[in-house]
Write a structure and sequence with these properties.
20% strand; binds magnesium ion; Rossmann fold; alpha/beta; 6-stranded parallel sheet; binds adenosine-5'-diphosphate
Length: 237
């Protein structure tokens, strides 16, 4: 099954931002993207409904025709760990239930799953993000905030991903603000330390195609799917 599990070095590092970019580009290539964010906390209440912002963004990016409930059935209001939020709502959710949400209806497309928090953040009563990724056996894309300290966060997360025997698709260093010190170059430093691709995403980048094209070529190669045909720029390679 082609797909990807998007995890992060933390919450608020850009998992959804990168997932949206990826979903848009894959969709533009004619690939059916099946987004899944099986559990989401910090949902806004609108009348009687809890609105999951991440799941909604992924749904729109993928122009997913299915119901939002297929993407994210487990929604909680407090902006805290989803497991704690579930407890407060008297819900007990298992990794098996999350796996089932991810897989149901995913047969005919590219499964794009976003966890919550980081790789070792709790995600269900009996498991971490790592356990869902392991159960799904999807290649992992690790997103990190491209700030001072990122190298440590990335290496710790990479070690954890490898300990699970998962395929690490790559690392995205994502600038979520414009405070990047001028002489810092985490991407160059990490390329010396890692054997997987390291991608960079600038803050508020106007042209996001470079990241997406490089990433997508790699995503499709790892997933054993046909490579996209881009205009002049990529054909020159
Ligand atoms: N490259 C970027 N440029 C500008 N804003 C970004 C970028 N990456 C993330 N953000 C913003 O940072 C915040 C956190 O990103 P988000 O994707 O929600 O993180 P996560 O899914 O890891 O919790 C969001 O408001 C998002 O729009
Ligand atoms: Mg998110």
């Amino acid at each position: 099954m082609p797909g990807i599990f998007i995890t992060g070095t933390n919450t608020d590092v850009g998992k959804t931002y990168i997932g949206v970019l990826l979903a848009k580009q894959l969709t533009a290539l004619g690939i059916t993207v099946i987004p899944r964010k099986p559990i989401e906390s910090g949902c806004q209440r609108s009348n009687d409904e809890l609105i999951p912002a991440d799941a909604t963004a992924l749904q729109q990016a993928a122009t997913y025709t299915g119901d939002l409930a297929e993407i994210c059935p487990f929604r909680f209001e407090p902006p805290i760990s989803p497991v704690r939020a579930a407890h407060l709502a008297n819900r007990i959710l298992t990794t098996e239930q999350l796996v089932s949400i991810c897989l149901t209806g995913s047969e005919q497309g590219f499964l794009l799953v976003e966890g919550a928090g980081g790789f070792y953040s709790p995600l269900s009563e009996d498991g971490l993000n790592a356990d869902l990724a392991t159960a799904l056996q999807l290649p992992v894309l690790l997103v990190a905030n491209d700030s001072l300290g990122a190298i440590n966060h990335v290496l710790l997360s990479v070690e954890a991903i490898k300990l699970r025997g998962l395929s690490l698709m790559g690392v995205v260093l994502n600038a979520i603000d414009d405070n990047t010190p001028a002489d810092m170059d985490n991407a160059a430093d990490l390329r010396q330390l890692l054997d997987c691709p390291v991608f960079s995403q600038n803050y508020n980048a106007v042209d996001t195609s470079a990241l997406a094209e490089g990433l997508i070529e790699y995503v499709l190669a790892v997933s054993d799917m046909p490579q996209p045909v881009y205009a002049a720029k990529s054909n020159k390679k």
